């Protein structure tokens, strides 16, 4: 029987997950409020696509500097500052009027939220041994899906009862509460007074990334990382996943309202079904199953690549939604697609803390997130253009399926063996590969 060493690390995982839920409420709110917002402002589908993607313009642009700042200054302060910026941006969206000012508010939101995902990935590397990294990562990644489960009906209820602006006021208040909680409770392991020496030793001996190790030359290190096939395989594969993810995140309520003629409130309830499936598969398959298979001695690279490949293949079920106008059938196809993509995502997010050279987890995570969010920028804009040109959503599902096939090839052939990349001069230094980490026994 394995000896208990404490649970402070899981408290940190819960805090990170709560932050992701709050983050994604800021992305769900505008999707649910889309139809009344469009009507009040007189927007075209193309302008709507610009608003839906504008958050990602600044978010993606800041990924590389954010990665360097995370490696240089740490997770704690960058996310503290960011949390108050994104709260301000959310309130602004509900107060201002006009296409330009809403666009500006969403760009500011992207600035505030830019450190969140690479920061969570880096914090997980600090706080968890490799054998628990799958579940720890899926905890914060599943939160992105679960946010739609609670956010879609909540925002639909608020919009239906109080108008679209109220949705941003409500989420703004939630943002402020979380910013205060994060400011008080997040600390790195070396700063935590609650962390016992025994739990700290368990984390470190289990292969956690070392703290306070910053690269001396961020530009040179980015140049080195961008020459690595592993980094490109991870980043391009994640970009293919993120295209479909953002297509659903930004346009699913609008698709249900426009193509299947649902009310705002009804579309909110239908929206939660695929996201419930995604939350469950993310945690159970992407987290618990991955860790369990590796703990039983299965090759870690094969486990992770197999799970990612199966998840992306299931994502191709999105194509089925292109050939139906029945709400139930469409929801089933979309649920299969999102469920598969959901359990591939935490595997991808666990990889920066495994393959990154010491001191560069934030940088690898930011490269991956940059590529993913460039894809996310394109998805809602392309969707809006396709709807304007065809008066149908069907072609968007076909485009998403084609991009997923490219992503599968990148994960399978470019990523290679999942092990730590050696920086120049490291020689034969031991790599960090969880298949070599021995399970501690009492």
From TrEMBL:
InterPro entries the UniProt entry points to: MFS (IPR011701), MFS_dom (IPR020846), MFS_Na/Anion_cotransporter (IPR050382), MFS_trans_sf (IPR036259)
The keyword Transmembrane helix belongs to this UniProt entry's keyword annotation: yes
Protein origin, superkingdom: Bacteria
Keywords: Membrane, Transmembrane, Transmembrane helix
GO cellular component terms given for this protein: plasma membrane
CDD domains: MFS_ExuT_GudP_like (cd17319)
Residues annotated as transmembrane: 7-25, 45-62, 83-109, 164-185, 231-252, 272-294, 306-324, 330-355, 367-387, 393-415
Molecular function as annotated in GO: transmembrane transporter activity
Localization (cell): Cell membrane
Membrane topology recorded in Swiss-Prot or TrEMBL: Multi-pass membrane protein
Protein name: Putative transporter YybO
Native source species: Dictyobacter kobayashii
């Amino acid at each position: 029987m394995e000896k208990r060493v404490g649970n402070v690390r899981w408290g940190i995982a819960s805090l990170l997950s709560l932050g992701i839920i709050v983050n994604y409420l800021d992305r769900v709110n505008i999707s649910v409020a889309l139809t009344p917002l469009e009507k009040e402002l007189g927007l075209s589908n193309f302008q709507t696509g610009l608003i839906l993607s504008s958050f990602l313009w600044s978010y993606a642009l800041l990924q590389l500097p954010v990665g360097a700042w995370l490696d240089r200054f740490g997770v704690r302060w960058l996310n503290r500052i960011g949390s108050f910026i994104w709260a301000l941006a959310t309130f602004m969206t509900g107060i201002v009027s006009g296409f330009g000012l809403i666009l500006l508010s969403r760009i500011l939101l992207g600035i505030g939220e830019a450190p969140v995902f690479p920061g969570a990935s880096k914090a997980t590397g600090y706080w968890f041994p490799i054998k628990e990294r799958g579940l720890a990562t899926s905890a914060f990644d599943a939160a992105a899906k679960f946010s739609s489960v609670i956010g879609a009906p909540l925002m639909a209820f608020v919009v239906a009862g109080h108008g679209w602006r109220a949705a941003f006021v409500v989420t703004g208040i939630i943002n402020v509460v979380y910013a205060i909680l994060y400011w008080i409770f997040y600390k790195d392991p070396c700063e935590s007074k609650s962390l016992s020496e025994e739990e700290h030793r368990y984390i470190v001996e289990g292969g956690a990334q070392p703290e306070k190790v910053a690269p001396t030359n961020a530009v040179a290190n980015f140049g080195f990382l961008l020459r690595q096939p592993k980094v490109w395989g991870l980043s391009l594969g994640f970009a293919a996943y993120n295209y479909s993810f953002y297509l659903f995140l930004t346009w699913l309520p609008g698709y249900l309202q426009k193509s299947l003629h649902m009310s705002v409130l009804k579309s909110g309830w239908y929206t939660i079904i695929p996201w419930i499936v995604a939350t469950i598969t993310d945690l159970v398959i992407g987290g618990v199953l991955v860790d369990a298979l590796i703990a039983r001695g299965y090759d870690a690279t094969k486990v992770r690549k197999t799970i990612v490949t199966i998840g992306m293949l299931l994502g191709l079920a999105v194509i089925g939604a292109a050939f139906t106008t029945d709400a139930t059938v469409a929801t089933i196809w979309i649920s299969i697609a999102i469920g598969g993509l959901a359990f591939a995502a935490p595997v991808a997010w666990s990889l920066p803390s495994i393959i990154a050279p010491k001191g560069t987890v934030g940088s690898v995570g930011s490269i991956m997130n940059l590529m993913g969010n460039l894809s996310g920028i394109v998805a809602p804009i392309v969707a809006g253009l396709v709807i304007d040109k065809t008066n149908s959503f069907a072609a968007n599902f076909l485009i998403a399926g084609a991009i997923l096939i490219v992503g599968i090839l990148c994960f399978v052939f470019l990523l290679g063996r999942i092990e730590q990349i050696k920086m120049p001069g490291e020689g034969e230094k031991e790599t960090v590969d969880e298949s070599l980490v021995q399970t501690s026994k009492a």
